[in-house]
Design brief:
- It is a single chain.
- The model has no long low-confidence stretch (mean pLDDT 86).
- The chain has one domain.
- 74% of the residues lie in helices and 1% in strands.
- Strands 1-2 form a two-stranded antiparallel ribbon.
- It is built from 20 helices and two strands.
- Helix 3 runs antiparallel to helix 4 and helix 12 runs parallel beside helix 18.
- It starts with a helix and ends with a helix.
- With 479 residues, it is an all-alpha fold.
- One of its GO terms (molecular function) is NADH dehydrogenase (ubiquinone) activity.
């Protein structure tokens, strides 16, 4: 196998640039003294901003593959990578106040390196053309993520969340490896392009597909694979929770759709039936549990499970329009969810760790700007017009409806109304409910305000600026 270095730099420039950022972060953490650490945060934000600007718009409009087809490049893959990098930048902006704490200041470099390492793993998973590359990418994303979940290891909740995440990840990896091994036994190859012609829908291959999907189901937190999702979200540091709920979920969902469309196309009826059941369970069960939550991080955990169900509506369509809808939905969901977690994080840091629903009673009177941002984010998550969430849900529903899933879309619409109720519970708490000891007024740090402003622009503008959807659509049809 001849390796052309020019092709590596052409097709892997996002991965190479990200590795360079990781190395710079690692070296700076080693050599920077106590005074130099105060420049660590702005340095990482500038590096990530440059990285996002360089990768989110693909300069190479062609397609290609390297390493014998194990790594595949298409422009739409690069757009997704750019979106995930933009979300990571926002997480960095919002994590500054937490990282400036006395017990985490000296671990700032670890946070950046671990977070970017998970992002690198997701990049390899997205561009995989071989199940070995796919699995390596998934593990590269999972292992550092477990460290991030248990980042506050001296706190019982964080240590417990880390242990539960590790157990879930091990179980998911085992299931996926079972499925991949069965496919290798029946197809004799693990290359995506070669497997398509050898997929015949036999009982063993259907079982292999179920195992593979179950493994990714844990990563995406779909019902019935959600298990300890709420416990993990509650125990992990809020910045890590926001990263886990959006970046990890978005990457895994996109990778799943690519594999289903490229590899399992001959078994389309089988995986569509499986997805149909999982979508109904995810949206319905998550909504019912979300209504009962009193902790906002657990509340958003079940909200994210429900949102994952909506994302699967795009996957089940199995079309280019569905691919476009999925990417646009992830982009809008990223803006809204990171805004909500950004508010929770800054309130938590400035109120002594308050994250309960009752703690937010009367928040509008003491911190009106944060209350308004939270309200707009929740309205977008609920799909209320004219916010971006409404348009993203509309495109998702349209993609599924076009492929004949009329009953499924109807069930999703009913659940959208149910979700509106529990999102409004939070709005009611902030704007109407009274509190004898409300959260005191405070001013969030500049970095957090910038992150929230970016998210707010996304929530308000993405539904109006049609060129974003059109750009994604153009590259999706060229995949």
């Amino acid at each position: 196998m001849n390796i052309d270095l020019s092709q590596i730099f052409t097709y892997m420039y996002a991965e190479i640039a990200l590795i360079a950022v990781i190395i710079l972060a690692f070296l700076y953490d080693l050599i920077a003294g106590k005074r130099g650490r105060r420049f660590f945060h702005p340095l990482m934000c500038v590096l990530m901003a440059v990285f996002v600007a360089a990768t989110i718009v693909p300069y190479n409009s062609g397609e290609g593959e390297i390493f014998g087809g194990m790594f595949v490049y298409t422009p739409i893959f690069n757009i997704v990578k750019g979106i995930l990098a933009a979300g990571t930048l926002i997480v960095f902006l919002q994590a500054d106040s937490w990282l400036r704490r006395e017990d985490t200041e000296f671990k700032r470099g670890e946070f950046y390196v671990l977070t970017l390492s998970t992002l690198l793993g997701m990049y390899f998973m997205i561009s995989a053309g071989h199940f070995l590359m796919f699995f390596i990418g998934m593990e590269l994303a999972s292992v550092p993520m477990a460290c991030l979940v248990a980042f506050d290891k001296y706190k019982n909740n964080s240590a417990e969340a880390g242990a539960k995440y590790i157990l879930s990840a091990l179980f998911a990896s085992g299931l996926m490896l079972f499925g991949i091994s069965f496919f290798y036994g029946t197809c004799g190859t693990l290359y995506f392009d070669d497997m398509v012609s050898k997929i015949d829908g036999s009982a063993l291959q259907i079982m292999a597909m179920v195992f593979f999907f179950s493994g990714l189901g844990f990563k995406i937190s779909l019902v019935p694979f959600h298990l300890w999702t709420a416990d993990t979200y509650q125990g992990a540091p809020t910045s890590v929770t926001s990263y886990l709920s959006v970046i990890s979920k978005g990457a895994a969902s996109f990778a799943l759709m690519v594999v289903l469309m490229k590899v399992f196309a001959p078994m389309v009826k089988d995986w569509q039936l499986m997805l149909w059941i999982v979508i109904v369970l995810s949206i319905t069960v998550a909504n019912l549990f979300a209504i009962r939550q009193k902790n906002l991080k657990r509340f958003l955990a079940f909200s994210s499970i429900s949102q994952a169900g909506y994302i699967m509506l795009a996957v089940i369509s199995g079309s280019a329009i569905g691919m476009t809808s999925l990417i646009f939905y992830v982009l809008v969901y990223l803006a809204a969810n990171l805004a909500a977690f950004g508010v929770i994080g800054t309130v938590e840091q400035n109120s002594g760790g308050k994250v309960g629903m009752d703690d937010y009673n009367g928040l509008y009177k003491t911190n009106p700007k944060l209350a308004v941002i939270m309200m707009l984010a929740l309205f977008s998550l609920a799909g209320i017009p004219p916010f971006a969430g409404f348009f993203s849900k509309f495109f998702i529903f349209a993609a599924a409806f076009e492929q004949g899933f009329h009953v499924l879309v109807f069930i999703a619409l009913i659940n959208t109304v149910i979700s509106l109720y529990y999102y409004l519970l939070v709005v009611k708490a902030m704007f109407i409910n009274k509190n004898d000891s409300p959260i005191a007024a405070f001013k969030s740090d500049c970095s957090t305000r910038i992150g929230l402003a970016i998210c707010l622009c996304g929530v308000l503008a993405l539904g109006i600026v049609s060129s974003v959807y059109d750009c994604i659509n153009m590259f999706s049809f060229g995949m």
